[in-house]
Amino acid sequence: MHNKYQKPTGSYISFMSNKVKTYGGINLAQGIPGFNPPKELTNILSEISGKNLHQYAPGNGNNELLDLLLNKYQKEYPAFQKDDILITQGGTEALSLLYTYFNKNLQKPFSALAFEPVYESYKYLPEIFNSDFIPFSFEDDFSIDFNKLKKTCIQNNVKVIFLGSPGNPFGKIWSKQEMVSLIDLSKKQDVYIILDAVYKELYFEEKPYIPLDKFNPNLFYINSFSKLFSITGWRIGYLIAHQEHMQK
Q1: What is the pTM (predicted TM-score) of this model?
Q2: 215 falls within a domain
Q3: Per the domain annotation, does 27 fall within a domain?
């Protein structure tokens, strides 16, 4: 007999989202925008639906989309090239692809770290690959004790740090100084940072600092169109990696 008070196994997000789909209600578990995509976007979709765009794209993604992304990011970071960008099935596939890459190429055992409260994918990906996962807490004022973080990385052999800014589910926006300090730590301790920037354009006051000007082999960048354009079901995202990694 099913015990309705039993703690669910697996993803809490999926569990609660399925409950809402089955019984109705307001879903506070999953990041689904409460409004439709821009009309301009759905109009374009209608216009091109009869064109020959429904078969396999090139392995690195649709060339027109790659050109548009390159044009966007070269304004902030002129060194980016088209081959540095890979189109994925949403930001989640980009996370999975990167962790698969790390699991294959890093000396084991190693640990992954993310900041509490932790987004589910950051926690469960290491578990899938039998890696240790280390949650790390902010200070009471939501700052980061970098000395403590360094000790944690050394003691637990942390080689991957997941970072969302603006964060999910906690909306912390990392300051420029915090970002620079984390990048410096990653270089000194040889740690890879996965910067998840799917909420990059969604902020109230000061624009979040995204360290594209400090892009280096220890930094991987992920984004998607899901939240910005309210198209979470379209599953279109991308990652940017340094040239020494992308071919692998």
Answers
A1: 0.90
A2: yes
A3: no
